[in-house]
Write a sequence for this structure.
């Protein structure tokens, strides 16, 4: 239940609201706004909640890129929990996932691939140097090949997009990766039809992450407002994954 536990979620939001500084660098801006009652779009559910807390928001040219709201905390939980050893992350964001993964004793090193120097500068304004974290500026798709125990791609702005398939192939060809995950993998798998997914070789860590996410959603009671992803989009992406995943069997 922890990823959907209100006390846990809002403790995380407050902790990072205190840690992260407001600031501007080039086209990017970090601000803090006090959020009150509104439609709460959590991870895999929609609901109304009463809350009054400073929310960290990242903007580019006035367009919202991400907010450290319950959806961000809940959707990152399993990736953070499964991370171990040498970890690769694509996408720095505001630094929440990077910082949480680096805190884990089982994690030895975190390599972050981020193309935008302005975003890196904003991150450095809030967080002290950590010897476990190395940020590589540049195109993550053209990076030098490395070996990772866990690799997490967080590029998709809270959406399931067709690029998850080609990115899986590109990064696994580029690096030697033991376990790979991408933002939203749990929602994707839980939205798949049984008669479709049974024919696809799904990585074990995807199954485990999805099972734990479902159990937590069920225990929290938010399962009552669960919203699956659009059926045809899910099916199309699943069958594209099938071509790659089944070929690796």
């Amino acid at each position: 239940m922890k990823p959907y536990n209100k006390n846990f979620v809002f403790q995380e939001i407050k902790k990072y609201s205190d840690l992260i500084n407001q600031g501007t660098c080039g086209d990017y801006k970090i601000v803090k706004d006090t959020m009150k009652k509104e439609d709460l779009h959590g991870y895999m559910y929609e609901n109304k909640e009463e809350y009054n807390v400073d929310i960290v928001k990242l903007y580019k040219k006035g367009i919202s890129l991400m907010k450290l709201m319950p959806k961000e905390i809940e959707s990152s939980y399993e990736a953070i929990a499964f991370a171990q050893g040498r970890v690769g992350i694509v996408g720095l964001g505001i630094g929440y996932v990077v910082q949480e993964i680096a805190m884990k004793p089982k994690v030895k090193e975190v390599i972050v691939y981020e193309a935008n120097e302005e975003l890196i500068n904003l991150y450095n304004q809030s967080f002290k140097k950590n010897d476990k974290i190395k940020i590589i500026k540049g195109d993550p798709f053209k990076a030098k090949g490395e070996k990772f125990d866990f690799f997490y791609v967080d590029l998709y702005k809270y959406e399931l997009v067709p690029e998850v398939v080609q990115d899986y192939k590109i990064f696994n060809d580029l690096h030697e990766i033991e376990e790979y995950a991408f933002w939203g993998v749990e929602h994707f798998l839980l939205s798949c039809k049984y008669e479709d997914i049974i024919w696809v070789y799904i990585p074990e860590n995807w199954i485990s992450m999805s099972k734990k996410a479902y159990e937590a959603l069920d225990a929290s009671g938010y399962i009552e407002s669960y919203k699956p992803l659009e059926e045809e989009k899910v099916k199309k992406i699943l069958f594209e994954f099938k071509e790659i995943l089944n070929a690796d069997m």
